[in-house]
Amino acid sequence: MSDAITLGSVTKRYGSLTAVDGVDLCIPEGSLCGFLGPNGAGKSTTIRMIMSIIYPDDGTISVLGGSALDRKDGIGYLPEERGLYRKMRVGEFLKYIARLKGIGSVGLTQRVDQWLERMELPGVQRKRCQELSKGMQQKIQFIASVIHDPELIILDEPFSGLDPVNARLLGRTVREIHESGRTIIFSTHVLHQAEQICDRVIMINRGRIVLDGSMPEIRRQFDPRSIRIKATGNLDSLAQRLEEHPQIRSLETQSEEGMIELRMEHEEETPEPRIPSSVLDCFNQQDGICTVELRQPTLDDIFVELVGSTIEDLDGDS
Ligand code: ADP
To answer: What domain range is 280 assigned to?
Structure first.
């Protein structure tokens, strides 16, 4: 499979700030890729370089085998800074954008109507863009970026400003478009949104890639993880048995909540996350166990492990 996008040692500086620092990336054709990192990490700068809106100081970029400017009609782009023609009616606006992207007029009204239906915006064709709520405008912008059925779709923070219901609708639609064979990359600083939909993850922090892999690869790399045990009664003897167990790396007891959380040593070859039977034996000797839960690492957990702080803390810094 060839790559839809490749970046080789791409660097972008703004004065003394290196916004993107020697980034190497390959986005294979047909992937649905989350480009994740805190605010200020360098996501939009990278995306703007991919789109040839700005240019790198160093490095090379290839998009669909050339530059984004050569392949404009094959690319759908949702920029971070949103803008619609405020006075234009929604239907006219979407038709205008589709025509700009090379779609003929035959069947165009129907195409627009189908997209509005799909994004749960029926009946807005004759409304002016400025009359719509922020979330609705965002959905219109999303439609504008995909209405020409591009082979490569690049979405910069597509979920920002959407309520949870619409964020789920957008996530579902992105997956469906991907399943029809399109390549999609989207940026977000909300990791759990990405976790649910993407099959490949690239994490960036301070302009550098800190993680790049498919979700199964990443899960394998970071599993097995933590076990959370809730129990009634005294947890001391259970905690002691677990602490002495060679496969337990660390353990935290929250006696008031009747909870022990422990992390297992990393095991290289575990096809499925599992609790070793010798660890389960420790639980069997304890009365009053309510739940034993094997937690898979979330992308937030992985980010903390890689970077040493939470994404929210870093977002707060920017
Ligand atoms: P993200 O999209 O991950 O939030 P950006 O790519 O927008 O991050 O920004 C990366 C860094 O580059 C930030 O520190 C930001 O302030 C800086 N930056 C972005 N655009 C410019 C610009 N036009 N001029 C100066 N600094 C910029």
So the answer is: 223-296
